[in-house]
Structures are given as structure tokens and as C-alpha cells.
Design brief:
The complex is a heterodimer of chains A (about 120) and B (about 110).
Chain A (H helix, E strand, L loop, with lengths): L2 E5 L3 E2 L5 E8 L8 E6 L5 E7 L5 E3 L7 E6 L4 E6 L8 E8 L3 E4 L3 E5 L2
Chain B lengths: L2 E4 L2 E4 L5 E7 L7 E6 L6 E5 L3 E2 L7 E6 L2 E6 L9 E6 L6 E2 L3 E5 L1
The chains are: A mainly beta (about 120), B mainly beta (about 110).
Chain lengths: ~120, ~110
């Protein structure tokens, strides 16, 4: 069945770089887009960026200058890297599958930015 | 594109039928989707493209609308429906979500 699972550090220091991995199963990254979505505690959802099935990427301009999304199709993994982290980047980070809408989501990974 | 959901909170009793609103800052055709999120869970899609049903989602959930005004209807709210509901547009980049409507027990 379709599954997505995020992994990465739970704690990152301010000004450092966040690196997250989304490992997928049950579908091919060359057939579906994978998105990264962030949620601050108790708040709404914020779309960060997208890895298209053809390998292209799209980014929310709110993150463009410090966000990078890449993938390794042989390992069924999509990567998020975001630099210059601040305390406002604390939240839960999700990866999700979808074209048009997102039909499967990972469980999310909680990231705290703190010294 | 900004999505404005109303009300922010809705207090109801089980068995009531309700409507949640989502308004877009510009026309998005029917590129509007509805999600449910329960505490400590990931969002789950309920309705795609404004009114299309999703396999496995109870039939009491339905959607309508096009352009800028959209509605999620829940026919006879069940106890498991108390959660937060979000709308999301995929008409243009970046995709955006509404601020959410919290459905709570009266």
C-alpha cells in the first residue's frame, strides 16, 4: 500500500540547515509528485514545495531563497534542505503525494529550532 | 491566492447537519479540495475538485461551489467528525490552504 514516512532531526540550532527525508513505498516517484507541507503548532498548513514526477521542482516564494528539494528515485526518497533556520521554522513537516490534491500523507516529523 | 474559511469555530451537537464555507480571493474554477485533520494526525482528503467524492469517505460529506465560493456539507454530524477542516486550492502556485474551521462539540 501507499506509504510516506518523514525522517530527520527533531532539534536544529538557529542559523543551521534542516535536512529531512521522505521515504515512499507503494508508488513510484516517477509517476507522482511529492510535496512538503509545514504546520506550526495549532495553526494552518503551509505548502513549501513540490518534486514533480519528471524531476522538476516548484517552490513557495516564501521559502525560495533557502529551500531545496531533491530526490533519489533508486531509493524512493525525496529530500528537503532548508538553511538559515529561525525559531519561526519550528513546526511539523509533512511530505504528501499528489497531483492536484494530496491523497496520501506521511505521519509528519516535529522539528524544533532552538539553541 | 488567499482562502478564507468561516466560521473559525462551529459548535454543534451530533446529528446536526452543517455547512462550512471557503472563499477564494480570485476565481479558482473547481480546483478546491477539502481535508479533515484530527489532533496529532495528518490531514485526510475528503472532497476533491469542489464536489467529487473520495473512495472510503462517508457519504455524509459533500462539497459544492465553483469560482470563489465553496461549501463543505456534513449531513448529520457523527461524534468522530469533531476535528479541524481545511480547504486547499490547486489552481495556481503556490498551493494554499485556508485557515481552517474547528468543529467542536456543543
Amino acid at each position: 500500500q501507499v506509504q510516506l514516512k518523514e525522517s530527520g532531526p527533531g532539534l536544529v540550532q538557529p542559523s543551521q540547515t534542516l535536512s529531512l527525508t521522505c521515504t515512499v513505498s507503494g508508488f513510484s516517484l516517477t509517476s507522482y509528485s511529492v510535496h512538503w507541507v509545514r504546520q506550526h503548532s495549532g495553526k494552518s498548513l503551509e505548502w513549501m514545495g513540490r518534486m514533480w514526477s519528471d524531476g522538476d521542482t516548484s517552490y513557495n516564494s516564501a521559502f525560495t531563497s533557502r529551500l531545496s528539494i531533491s530526490r533519489d528515485t533508486s531509493k524512493s526518497q525525496v529530500f528537503l534542505k532548508m538553511n538559515s533556520l529561525q525559531t519561526e521554522d519550528t513546526g511539523t513537516y509533512y511530505c504528501a503525494r499528489g497531483d492536484g490534491y494530496t491523497d496520501y500523507w506521511g505521519q509528519g516529523v516535529m522539528v524544533t529550532v532552538s539553541s | 491566492i488567499m482562502l478564507t474559511q468561516s466560521p473559525a469555530t462551529l459548535s454543534v451537537t451530533p446529528g446536526e447537519s452543517i455547512s462550512l464555507s471557503c472563499r477564494a480571493s480570485q476565481s479558482i474554477s473547481t480546483n478546491l479540495h477539502w481535508y479533515q485533520q484530527k489532533p496529532n494526525e495528518s490531514p485526510r482528503v475528503l472532497i476533491k475538485y469542489a464536489s467529487q467524492s473520495i473512495s472510503g469517505i462517508p457519504s455524509r460529506f459533500s462539497g459544492s461551489g465553483s469560482g470563489t465560493d465553496f461549501t463543505l456539507n456534513i449531513n448529520r454530524v457523527e461524534p468522530e467528525d469533531f476535528s479541524v477542516y481545511y480547504c486547499q486550492q490547486s489552481n495556481s502556485w503556490p498551493w494554499t490552504f485556508g485557515g481552517g474551521t474547528k468543529l467542536e462539540l456543543k
